[in-house]
Amino acid sequence: MTIDWLAFVAVFVASTVVACVVVALFATGIRLLATPPHGARPAGAPRDEEMDDVEGPQRPRRATVAAVVLFVLAASVALYGIYLIIPALHP
Description:
Strand content: under 5%
Helix content: 55-70%
Shape: elongated
Number of helices: 2
Order of helices and strands: HH
């Protein structure tokens, strides 16, 4: 029995690239959820108790929608990988 090293390298490279893509999609989604609202004060600005307004401006809707889309894409890629690994799912 011989090992097909070219196939081994192809699987290694493909799995590494796909893992990086999934991590990048998820991390970008998290970053989009951390987008500050328009007109927000700078990160190092001084605060007082009156600035803790819960009803204040919200993050942009486009950032939220884009984050959800990226999470769905990351989950879809992961589920497709599981589908490819488990032979019982193939007809």
